[in-house]
């Protein structure tokens, strides 16, 4: 079972219009075909990293609050969906396949910290004190988390007998469902 999404021209133009301050498109999520779970998760990591860079540029350029908030909301949505698919599907499969449960325990604690910061950001106005700082710190949390996953956890899972193609298909399916439920329109 392969489930991929195609980007509609309307979505692509809306993203371009919404982020005129960026030099390159921030997302290739919808057009990339992922043939395994780890490739999907790494692609998500790259997408969010690019969005955090776009956010830093908006802050540097003193963009208005609405533009910063729209991008912060997109980052928060993508991180929420990503954390959910990892926690519901990837982490349990990894926990069953590898011996180092400490890696997964740490990842879950890092998710909890990120979710707390996401909730704070989502509950704020972009013009409130510390808004930009919280988005920046969230980016730093995520950067640390991604580094550990990509250098420690993912190599362990790759060495295991986990069927990464099947796991990837499950992740894609759940991700699409969550995006539909949580409002993929927020990504446009």
From TrEMBL:
Residues 37-156 form the Hemerythrin-like domain. Residues 1-16 have a biased composition (Low complexity). Residues 1-31 are annotated as: Disordered. Pfam families: Hemerythrin (PF01814). This is Hemerythrin domain-containing protein. It comes from Aquabacterium soli.
